[in-house]
Amino acid sequence: MRRIAPILAIVLAAASVALASSAASAATLSTARARGEIGRLAAAAYPDLEIGNIACPPTVRRADGATFTCTAQIPGGFLVVDAEQDGTTGAVTLTTPNAVLAKSALEQFVASNATIGATVDCGPAPVIVRRPGQTVTCRAALEDGTTRTVTLSVRDPAGTVVVAAVG
Q1: Which residue has the higher pLDDT, 18 or 100?
Q2: Which of 59, 78, 69 is nearest to 19 (CA)?
Q3: Is residue 110 within 8 Å of residue 150, measured between CB atoms?
Q4: Per-residue pLDDT reduced to its tens digit, 1-50
Q5: First-to-last CA distance in the chain?
Q6: In terms of pLDDT, which residue wins out, 55 or 29?
């Protein structure tokens, strides 16, 4: 059975933040403001999640189109945030390639697509972070006493998943 359905479609919205030049050189940017903006945006996008440490390189070379990656610790994994610079203004655009999936929504999706009643477990973490193309494995205990392993494939950062396999 294959069915596309959006699951908790919370995506860190693209944002732009101006980064000041470091005192050492106008050729580098400090990422401290990017870390602060990532924390603010993540807290707004995921109000029920504890946002932990946010790690970025301390400084980056200032160049138009140059990129760097930061990570934000959340329960169950890390949210990857990609940053791309405008070398002229120092503005940085933040996006995430990750889908942040609510475990409970995935379990409900699998149960609702079962042909008979099922209790589903998709793991211990309250959220699951995956990139498009990656999978999530859930275990379904059916009313008839059998169990099935259900593999969901993540299609996009918005959280669209499909049932890829049932075994």
Answers
A1: 100
A2: 59
A3: yes
A4: 333 343 433 344 445 555 544 344 567 878 888 899 899 988 888 888 89
A5: 12
A6: 55
In whole angstroms, give the CA distance from residue 111 to residue 119: 7
Cα distances from 3 to residues 79, 109, 151, 158, 166, in angstroms, run: 26, 10, 12, 16, 13
113-154, pLDDT tens digit by residue?
A: 999 999 999 999 889 999 999 999 999 999 999 999 999 999
Q: Which two tokens stand for residue 31?
A: 């990422």
Region of residue 152 (phi > 0: left; psi between -120 and 50: alpha; otherwise: beta) = beta
Q: Which CATH class is domain 15-97?
A: alpha beta
CA 17/CA 78 separation, integer angstroms: 21
Strand partners, 135: 153
This prediction has a pTM of 0.75
Q: Which two tokens stand for residue 135?
A: 């999978």
